[in-house]
Amino acid sequence: MRLDEYVTYDGTGLAELLARGEVTPNELGVCVQAAVAAVNPEINAVVELYRDALEALPSAPLGGPLHGIPTLTKDFPVEAGRPAEFGSRLAQGFRTPHDACYWTRLRKAGLFNVGRTTSSEFGVPATTETLLYGATRNPWDTALGVSGSSGGAAAAVAAGIVPFAQGSDGGGSIRNPASFCGLIGLKPSRGRITGSPGSNAPLLGLATGFMLTRSVRDTALLLDLCHGPDAGDGYEIVRPEGAYLEAITRPPKRLRIALVTRSWSETTVDPEVAAVVAATGARLERLGHYVDIAAPSFDYITFLAAQKSIWAADSAAGLPLMAARMGREIDNGTLGASVLALYRHGLTLSGAQFMTALGVYDALTREIGRFFERYDLLLTPTSVIPPEPLGTYDPARPGIDVDDVFADLEPKETFTALFNATGQPAISLPTGRTRNGLPIGVQFAARFGREDLLLALAREFEEELSDGPGIWSQGRPRCMPAITRDKEL
User: Is 187 in the active site?
Assistant: First the structure.
């Protein structure tokens, strides 16, 4: 298979070629290596490729629906025995002791993890620029960033290295990189993807693992393959009525959709972003849906204060365990400025302050739930800004505090972090571009447990804006491998 052909397929398309014998797993592995060689020096998305996994691809079993498809995982604990350094000098050399349950399910479906991608440090900054691995650059324009924390995954998929890649989302860490890189980024409902065996509810239920993709059908298939509880989960979300792949074959009925472009925070929505959201709303109306300018009413400042407490408490509890395991001190020699500031703030919190923050989240979840009794979906910007220049964030900036940490997060997470708090599903879709051709994502949020509705609407957009399954962008990222038509790999 030629590399310029490989980069045009989504995962489902590659699986169909494999099933027909038109390509082999080994050829796909060769394409991954060639793509990394071609673009990774420019974008710095892939930390390393796993030679043993690539060597195993020729004998990949052809039983699962994604038989022999190569993918990449984030620099977080996912697969047993693999490095998981959290983008941090503190965790350098750490290896994951066990598989994430949902990853075991995906591997049984035929996926091969052939390497790991860059992440922001411990998933805290919303930009993938670390003191350990440097900056990950946007395939659309390498002077720009990819957001975070799953920035390497987004850059690798956008550049065509793999058809989809694993990420995680605790405040927007799948959706914002998807927006900056022109991809589909779904954050499933709390509990849809089990945190087993590492956690009953990662980051107190705010975080979940899943995948960044280039097509709705890949998103639906991957969710079908990895969702569901595991033994010992503290609660079980209601199972979907049918397969997500089946849900996307049925256009949604006329939906009541609320639309908001006015910022919930003090960061103003960029006019180009607001224009894309408004244009998306107009397209929804042409598709027959009812669109209303409306937004949930909540106190963003109170929500933000609770978020600071919960994130900081989690850092104060977890980082000493990693430091003890790795035999390192927690200081500015092992942590970047943002994570260190968050950790230090966590040390000042009392149990009463932490419980108060949880109470804010409980009340907020009820309030937002009542809003979704009136509307099926909420349409917002994903990030309030288009992709930002590299260097806007300095991982070594001295003298910052927890307020500075969240000021850095605010342009990306104003609209996304709310749905980590409420546990509702939310998806970023690449429905527009800036005047310079850079991707802009919009976010749709749904009632708890209604990933089927998000995916059905996403598929309706995909059919409207493209000739087949895949990203609806005009053109391709500048940093995508292509070779001459007569050259075979």
Answer: no
CA distances for 310 relative to 12, 137, 268, angstroms: 39, 30, 25
Question: Which of the following is catalytic: 149, 196, 428, 473?
Answer: 149
The encoded tokens of residue 169 equal 């989302």
Q: Indicate if the pLDDT at residue 61 is higher than 70.
A: no
For tokens 């805290």, what's the residue?
124
The predicted-structure confidence for 372-392, as pLDDT tens digits, reads as follows 999 999 999 999 999 999 999
pLDDT (tens digit per residue) in 131-148: 999 999 999 999 999 999
DSSP 151: H
| Catalytic one of 88, 173, 179, 263 | 173
Residues 372 and 376: their CA atoms lie apart, in Å, by 6
Q: Is 59 a catalytic residue?
A: no
Average pLDDT of the residues in 80-106 = 97
Among 437, 454, 408, 456, residue whose Cα is nearest residue 176: 408
Q: What is the pLDDT of residue 487?
A: 36
Mean per-residue pLDDT, 461-469: 83
Strands 256-259 and 290-293: parallel
Token couple for 223 = 């969710």
Catalytic, out of 74, 187, 308, 412: 74
| Contact (Cβ atoms closer than 8 angstroms) between residue 302 and residue 453 | no
Q: Is 74 a catalytic residue?
A: yes
